[in-house]
Amino acid sequence: MKRVLIITYYWPPSGGSGVQRWLKMSKYLPENGWQPVIYTADGAEYPVEDLSLEKDIAPEAEIIRRPIIEPYSFYKKFLGIKKDEKIKAGFINEGKKKSAWKENVSVWLRGNLFIPDARCWWIKPSVRYLKKYLQKNPVDAIISTGPPHSMHLIAKELHKKFNIPWIADFRDPWTDIDFFSELKLTKRSLKKHHKLQYQVLTEANKVVTVGWDWAKGLESHGAKDVAVITNGYDFNIEELRTKSGLSDNFVMSHVGIIGAARNATKFWEALGELIKDENQSDFSNLLKIRLIGQVDNSVLISIKENKLENHVEIIPYIPHEKVIIEQSASQVLLLFVNNSPNAKGILTGKIFEYMASGRPILAIGPKDGDTAIILDETKSGTIVDFEDKEGMKKSILDLFEKYKDNQLLTKENESVKKYSRRALAKEYVNLIERILRNE
Fold first, then answer.
1. How many other β-carbons are positioned within 10 Å of the β-carbon of residue 335?
2. How far apart are CA 4 and CA 13, in angstroms?
3. What class has domain 2-232+420-438?
4. Distance between terminal CA atoms of the chain?
5. What is the dihedral of CA 121, 125, 128, 130, to 10 degrees?
6. What residues are paired with 66 via a beta bridge?
7. With bands split at pLDDT 50, 70 and 90, how would you rate the model's confidence at 182?
8. DSSP code of 307?
9. C-alpha distance from residue 213 to each of 202, 217, 336, 369, 402 (Å)
10. Share in percent of the chain as helix, strand, coil (round to 5)
11. What region does 45 belong to: left with phi over 0, alpha with psi -120 to 50, or beta?
């Protein structure tokens, strides 16, 4: 069996979206003739933990955990955050009172002292350890997955030393990610980010990302012929349907983080106007919104401003296996694309699980982006532009009328099956083996 070293920060007990891609991909590598060797962090500061994911680790996988030092203890002390409190993913604002100047200083320090990210202190010790490890335990290929993009810099040094074929896998962009402009970078730091990004994109044997627009973006920064292998779903669709029954109420659910850029303000306004409409009393009585995951304070403000508090339930986190059942029990699944310059390329991992559940999707985002392409290809839902409030109201009411007529039925969709993690793992193995033949 060939061996592939996978360098990833996110690994169980980490929960959330960052862990899913390579936990699930590596699960199906052994049946395709590849043993995954996972190099990951010991003692990492994960925003959420989900012990239920450990059952998805391939029995054949070799797991290497090495201690990591992260600067979060200083960050917490500086901002007055309790030691046992988790650092939220991205730039989530929970509405807690923090000193504005301290927050600005901490962002400046994060952007300019920790390049490319807060895991940069792990690069050198990881390279030292893995150089010794690979001399005694050779592998046939290396895959680094980011963010955090420090993982790519570890792989870059190993590739330079051993000339092992290397794939740099981008789950999100680097300098094109939506919050990059918020890092308060100096010219020197900005130049360093772009230099490191260029080195990774041009020195890796292959660059892979999860969507077509982001592939073009990475190519504009120096990568050649970026491959697209999307995220996917990993559950038995038929088995899932026996576990979950549809909700009685008109439940619209969103799964995952809703940061400020993902706060669909016009959507909340549309709902607020519909529940006040005297002609829509049934809608007001039956509407339930479930937000499962971290929610930015701006979202809570939008909900309150539109008098939706009695219709909204917020569930900070539940294990992934339960999330799948919850979304399959919902009448409608909500998908909010970040309203940011890179919105066209955003293709969240949850969309594939949404599609596999067979529930109709209502997405808010660009109608010419990658999300729109997938929804159109699979006929899994509707997408409405960020500012089209009337379009949102029409789409919501159309779905509500179908719900009342018992027309929102779970249906099997053959076009979705190619997005199973098993099928995508085989696609990834084919890519690795093509690279090996070329090398």
1. 24
2. 22
3. alpha beta
4. 19
5. -100
6. 41
7. confident
8. T
9. 19, 6, 18, 8, 34
10. 50, 15, 35
11. beta
Q: Which pLDDT does position 92 carry in this prediction? A: 46
- Residue carrying structure tokens 């260029």: 198
Q: In sequence order, what E strands does 90-199 have?
A: 141-146, 166-170
CA distance 410 to 328: 9
Other beta carbons within 10 angstroms of residue 28's beta carbon come to 21
Q: In angstroms, rounded to a whole number, what is the distance separating the alpha carbons of residues 111 and 124?
A: 19
Q: What is d(CA 372, CA 354) in angstroms, rounded to the nearest whole number? A: 14
Q: Where are the domains of the chain?
A: 2-232+420-438, 237-417
Q: Is the Cβ–Cβ distance between 325 and 255 less than 8 Å? A: no
Given the structure tokens 């994109």, which residue do they identify?
201
Please state the CATH superfamily assignment of the domain spanning residues 237-417 in this structure.
Glycogen Phosphorylase B; (3.40.50.2000)
Q: Identify the band that residue 70 occupies on the pLDDT scale cut at 50, 70 and 90.
A: confident
Percent of the chain whose pLDDT exceeds 70? 90
> Is the separation of the CB atoms in 5 and 139 below 8 Å?
yes
User: What pLDDT, on a 0 to 100 scale, did the predictor assign at position 370?
Assistant: 94
Quick one: pLDDT at residue 411?
66
* Alpha carbon distance 399, 331 (integer Å): 9
Residues 4-37 pLDDT 10s: 999 999 999 999 889 999 999 999 999 999 999 9
**Beta bridge mates, 295:** 258
Q: Give the number of other Cβ atoms within 10 Å of residue 117's Cβ.
A: 21
Q: Is it true that 2-232+420-438 and 237-417 share their CATH fold?
A: yes
Average pLDDT of the segment spanning 423-436 = 97
What values do phi and psi take at 364, rounded to 5? -115, 115
Confidence of residue 204 (pLDDT cuts 50, 70, 90): very high
DSSP class of residue 404?
H
- What pLDDT is recorded for position 91? 45
Identify any residues that bridge with 142 across adjacent strands, giving them in sequence order. Answer: 5, 166
Torsion of CA 237, 240, 242, 244, to 10 degrees: -130
For 67, other C-beta atoms within 10 Å of its C-beta total 10
Q: Stretch 273-295: mean pLDDT, rounded?
A: 92
Burial class (CB in 10 A: 0-12, 13-18, 19+), 91: middle
Give the mean pLDDT of 299-324.
92
